[in-house]
Predict the 3D structure of the following.
Amino acid sequence: FFMERKTQVKINRKKIMLAKLRKSCSCTPGKMKNIIMDFFPVLQWLPKYQCKEYIWGDIMSGLVIGIILVPQAIAYSLLAGLKPIYSLYTSFFANIIYFLMGTSRHVSVGIFSLISLMVGQVVDRELLLAGFDLNDDAPSNLGAGFLLNDSQSNTTAFNLTIGGTSVECGKECYAIGIATALTFVAGVYQVLMGIFHLGFVSIYLSESMLDGFATGASLTILTAQVKYLIGIKIPRSQGHGMLVITWINIFQNISQANLCDVITSAICIVVLVTAKELGDRYKHKLKFPLPTELVVIVVATLVSHYGNLNELYASSVSGAIPTGFIPPKVPRFDLMLRVAVDALPLAIISFAFTVSLSEMCAKKYAYTIRANQEMFAVGFCNIIPSFFHSFATSAALAKTLVKTSTGCQTQVSGVISALVVLMVLLFLAPLFYSLQKCVLACIIIVSLRGALRKFRDVPARYHVNKVDTLVWIITMSASALVSTEIGLLVGIIFSMLCIIVRTQQPRTALLGQIQNTNFYEDDLEYKNLSSVPRVKIFRFEAPLYYANRNYFLKSLYRLTDLDPNLEAARRKKYEKKEQQRQKKGDQTAANGLGTEETTMQLVPKQIDFQAIIIDCSSISFLDTTGVNTLKEILKDYKELNISVLLACCNPSVVDSLKRGGYFGKDFGNMQELLFYSIHNAVKFARDLS
């Protein structure tokens, strides 16, 4: 039977684009209102806020996240190579801005260990290039510069010449200048991606690649914290192979370990891990997670303060954390140029984690998010705080899960968390002066449990999909052993190469008929299939395009045990040889003993089929090379009196074949070459025989 295609209405794209342009350029009060409402989603949902139903859940989750945020903010400052006050600023501003602009009700946006690590690597590199000592406790020294005391900022100031401009800036000042410039550029990238609707970039970051990247970065984070755990002073390694170099330095200086820090770290890790395990085991009985980090920090600070651990045992402490807000400052343009390349992977990773978590929450709680608006929200969570001495932010999985488990309903909980951080900023920050850095390192390392547990999932992942496991291993290894930026690049490239290889060498099969049915399946995969007499049914499970053309032909020739080009050449040689023999009249020699080898080489092959049916159900598209390949095999097999029939083609494949002239002029041969099912093609082939 022949199905008639619908007549497609031609779309005047020029008119449509002009209409869209006219609509986008128009400025009416209604349109301006919609733009503002879309840009600030809080204006849509806050007037509909159901106070009695939502408020207690939001307050509870906000308080819990705020209590978790404070110790994490102070701890993650070690990763970023910055003072704790800047982490607190980051946590405060990110929650406020995402409350105004975010479309997810449950995501917790703020400092994230992976983002802090990427910021810290850039800060360390630029500090090293500027001539600063990366040792946290060592005084800065620039041979040509002169030393000044700056009592207001509690830093050491130097005369630096950067980009031809003389500026007065110490190590802390220069470090936060790099971080804010990096954050501002990353935010600009994210906003530009939102303007040009480039959110699709995140689809190239597969789940296996992101998991591998996070695990590799977690190993780097863990390695960077070991020196704080045992209290040794080694330089912060930079460049490729940082993980290996750091471990070499650790073992070379292990004899200098501070016993006080080692004992403190051991106690804190035991307490934190035990509390986390108990919390995971009895989480269905607990109304909210145990604030273990806060308890550990409070107790450790009191012990350090009253035990004078810094003075008696030289244990490294956090130092003075000022209260209030530092006056805002525009990020420096000359530093932006230095970190413009580094900001791109930071922007992509930050957005990818935020959108993936937002989509996860939206799916779980049955609402929708707008990925493009998320891009704007994360972008402005970076741009605006960069003026207030903050660094890059992202959604964090652990805090998001805690937020949802403690009754969060809307982003009002984010405002509550910001108020908790504000209380610390205004009144409580100086109380953490005596807090040991090894305690902060313990909090960071224990927070990596989830990422490090991915190693236990490798056998199950391998059982599910071997290629995805290979992507995970390659990305994790590159991120840990080379660098996070290289690991991200390697992961993306390797993931895409895996997709290309899969389409270049897809599965191919000959099909047999399921007994007493009109259906056909892979003869090697299923039992009790019957072959169709005089017919070969070939399935190719990928698009047919220039990259897999040769594989398609080789697979077809191998499975059918017939190369039409070789067979046609053999027949021509045989006919030519026969004609020469007939002219000579040497029939005896043709039938003699000495011609056995010649006969075997030249006698035409006995072909046991007269039709090939190509199952096109898995061929999603054809390019020009693909169409020409099908035309080529149609012609080649026709010379051997073998028909080539196509079955189960989708409309786009049929259109490509029509445009390529596969069916001849006016599509006259279409009903003899194209069939809507394999069984129809088989019946037609039988009628031919």
User: Anything to note?
Assistant: Residues 508-568+606-688 form a domain with the Transcription Regulator spoIIAA fold (CATH 3.30.750.24). The longest strand covers residues 155-162. DSSP finds 29 helices and twelve strands in the chain. Residues 138-167 have pLDDT under 50 and may be disordered.
